[in-house]
Amino acid sequence: MLEDTSFAIHPGNEQQSKAVLYRDIGSMKSYKQLDTGYFFQCENGQVTIQFFTNSIIRVVMNQFNEPKLNGSYAVIASPEYVDVKDSDSEEQVVLKTDKLNVTIQKSPFRLTILDHDGNTFLEEGERGMAYRENGEVTAFKKMSEDDHFYGFGEKSGHLDKRGETYEMWNTDVYAPHNPETDPLYESIPYFMTLRNGRAHGLFFDNTFRTTFNMKADNNGYSFKAEGGQLDYYVLAGPEPKSVLQQYTHLTGKMPLPPKWALGYHQSRYSYKSEEEVRELASNFVEKDIPIDVIHLDIHYMNEYRVFTFDKEKFPDPAKLIADLREMGIRIVPIVDPGVKKDAEYTIYQEGITQNQFCKYIEGDVYIGDVWPGESAFPDLTEESVRNWWADKHEVYTSIGIEGIWNDMNEPAVFNDTKTMDVDVMHRNDGKPATHRELHNVYGLLMSKATYEGMEKQLNGKRPFLLTRAGFAGVQRYASVWTGDNRSFWEHLQMSLPMVMNLGVSGVPFAGPDVGGFAHDTSAELLVRWTQVGAFTPYFRNHSAMGTIYQEPWQFGEDNEAIMKKYIQMRYIWMPQLYSLFYQASVTGHPVMRPLFMEYPEDQKTYNINDQFMIGNNVVVAPILAPSVTDRAVYLPAGQWIDYETGVQYEGKRAHLIHAELDRMPIFIKQGTAIMQGEWTSNQNKNPHHVQMDVYAGANGETYNFTYYDDDGETFDFENGAFMELSIEVKSTTNAVVVTVSDQSGHYKPAYGKIHVNVHGLHDEQDVILNNNDNVAISLVK
């Protein structure tokens, strides 16, 4: 009760610290080779080392039994054959592949993983793997003074996570998100280490409440879980992009989203009637402000019963959806897991009679209080329940809905613990486990059920799914928003490293609520946040009831014009963004990137929190504080061109850039290119004109990139209905040469040809276009 007052630091509240006693794994007694690795018997437990690829090594410790190697919710890859040579001496065992060496010190059992050049990825010292009698497992690793840490999923604070402690336990947090607010809604127990330009990663595959301590001392870090096995993967990199490819090889990559999902989304808690939604949509169309999606929060339902509509406020949802579709707008409704306890409610009836709900081990259905009041929760750890839940989405898909918004799926419950009782027993596909073990995967499994159900029901169209909670691998099914932020400048500032670290954690489709959810926004904050939102992967304006409305026209014509400009800019940049989303679906590389991902050798990029990159050649440097019109911008190596003014800036240094309220600084790297479309209207969002903007570079500069397009809506691209162009831009003293060297797929876009516009040509330079026979590109004079 007094936690938020000075009483919290009363001297009498000090706790006497007690030493935590861990039992070390002990010395190695014996080992043997397995099909995909090696098994080690130690004094106090067993360890298995698996080689998933030449660059991915798995370490599993079980203090009681032989390590279990199956059953992960996150990992979808299987170990490949890797040629491993082992050698045994009195003091150590060495396992060697063509890329890595694993050295096992025998007494006590300690691991070191390094490459053939002596670069260390993981090293244990005085302490290694251990456990406590209460079931807790832990690992201690050495830390270099040059180590910088990134990832950890959805965490507040700065980009570099060194010196912090993070907990993984999905939690509904409405209180303001401060740098110390932890945990939040997503649990992704993974991080990347960057050390002197080389990167490696570690993924701790444990679903219990886990903790990463990156500040114990300057010589080491640790991670632990309340139960289960110590099961982690070491990803050898050595480039940041390689680490992400290795991590997403294990946990999967995002599916290519429908193009409309990349557009502008408008939401509020809540638009409470069909009349209000129609007026909202008409305003966007009449004002020529782009919009693809209107979200419906919980008030569209009949007293918050999922899979229902309030027929008084939304009398004909099918017609509403059809009419809005004619305007170029889709509806995405919210779906929560809590099912109202109501004997006359069909979903509750089925859940009880068909045994679909979470129960205690004694057989009683767990009932928790959420929006509908007393509610039951589907046991989504069971395949038959996931199928049942998936089928229920036909209520939406049958009337033209193609996207769903999952909320409250931590699962959130209105009680002191904020969630389900941890002794609820999940059926877990024949392997019963408590909620204490499976809490963190509930949101992931809800996403899986929802996405796969929608995919079946949409007859070849791609679904869109937005989720609040998730676990490692959530990118396979859903995009993520960063939860209930507030209309504070500090939250705008914090959103950049949050979204960048989600991207580093394998979740490229992410973003905050633009303008802030709670509290009242201001005109200046909303303008500046909309500018940022135009370049964050997920772009939604969302606000809470009781706060000022924050649609783009709510703050006068001048501010509306600026926001309209940047929302339209989102669509002008859509060809570039869509190509980057395609690359994310193939490689796992994020769309929105921290600068260190492209410039790992440049230590000045290691903790830049207020800038980001779009792809590998665009730097965005927004204004993130009130009344500011000048800011320092650090540009990495190369020459950079201001997107709006054309002014050239030298790299590897900081510049003072002026930006009035109507401008956000964007820089394109010289010698590269971007793809641009056009804004036509809400009813017709497919561009009739696509342009390649080439920025002439210095003699000898070569830039290669892939341009991708398809129908943006169906899965036909899986059968060849796509266009993928390999393009090279080469700058010489005499010419800028643009070459389309390869084309894949048989999709023919409506815009027909791609126009090439070259910026910054010198007087002596000409432009040479080398067309692929099947691709028309032409020069814009």
TrEMBL record:
Top-rank taxon of the source lineage equals Bacteria
Q: Please name the Pfam families in this protein's record.
A: DUF5110, Gal_mutarotas_2, Glyco_hydro_31_2nd, Glyco_hydro_31_3rd
Q: What is this protein called?
A: Alpha-glucosidase
- Annotated source species: Virgibacillus litoralis
InterPro entries xrefs: DUF5110, Gal_mutarotase_sf_dom, GH, Glyco_hydro_31_AS, Glyco_hydro_31_C, Glyco_hydro_31_CS, Glyco_hydro_31_N_dom, Glyco_hydro_31_TIM
Give residue ranges for domain Glycoside hydrolase family 31 N-terminal.
Answer: 47-212
Q: Which family does it belong to?
A: Belongs to the glycosyl hydrolase 31 family.
Q: Name one GO molecular function term.
A: alpha-1,4-glucosidase activity
Coiled-coil-forming residues are none
According to the entry, every stretch annotated as the DUF5110 domain falls at: 691-760
Q: Which UniProt keywords apply?
A: Glycosidase, Hydrolase
Q: Where is the Glycosyl hydrolase family 31 C-terminal domain?
A: 588-674
Q: What EC numbers are recorded for this enzyme?
A: 3.2.1.20
- Domain called Glycoside hydrolase family 31 TIM barrel: residue spans: 255-580
